[in-house]
Model the fold of this input.
Amino acid sequence: MKSCLSRLALFALLSSSPGAFAVAAAPAADFPTKPVRLVVPFPPGGATDNLGRMLAARMGTSLGQQVVVENRPGAGGNIGAEVVAKAAPDGYTMLLTTSTLASAPSIYPRLAFDPLKDFRAIGEVGRVPFVLVSPIDAPFTTFQAFLEQARAQPGKLSYASPGNGTPIHLYSELLQRRTGIELIHVPYKGGNQPKTDLLAGRISVMFESPVTALPSINAGQLRALATSRPLKMAPRIPTIAASGLSDFEPEVWYGLVAPAGSPDASVRRLSAALAQALASSDVLQWMDAQGATVAADPGAERFQKILVDDVANWARIVKESGAKID
Done:
């Protein structure tokens, strides 16, 4: 009798709240039922924006819903990150982030978000090395010659970055500490203006991604001084290590995160869509053309560990480099 009453009580409870099971199952069965927003925290036209639009197209196909790119540039990627941190945790907002998310707590004294508490990982996309470039008519033609001139004229040469706190800013500051040179930092708000000023000779050097640097290098407009690691599309560019500076391989990772509290089922669906996008032949070819390596494991769990580890790693880099907000 007791067992029967228990079953009757359970039946009555479920009958009185028919939506209980439906709510729990909905994210897995129905998500997404509307377009998903992908916030890109940099201006249109740059490498991050191009990557975001490629992923949005492929993930949209997998999800059966449009993934809409929304550019929210500024503050080295922090404005876009804040937008996503404060978005509804319903699975319908993602951030295409870079290493800036992990470095931000170490360089910004008052940050409107916590990269570990306000986001949850969807998955890593891949990693891109840097090429150190200079104007074609610069008085130095090699990485070593650049260092020699910088040492001979401290505070005279300049470098550009797409913004304070970005990996290019931090790695450039770390380069100075590792080599004993002193450069002037000229930060921009992303976009093409740094490249324009570099081409015009108003900037001495800049770290660039291979995809943005190589067209100007091949056209004889910029000179490649060194690269983080060997590039298949430009094997003649010497690596920084081969140029005399070991243990310095600047690169940036890209990944997707969602607001903390986003449903597990929705995040799993987004992570699966990302994995499918990264496995497609056209995305693989596109990433290869950028000089990028695709994440071997784009899973959320692994990327969450990368975030945790990199927050600590960037804290050490910022402390060693002495990087500050200009």
Summary: The chain has two domains: 34-127+252-321, 131-227. The CA atoms of residues 147 and 181 lie 7 Å apart. The chain is about 45% helix and 20% strand.
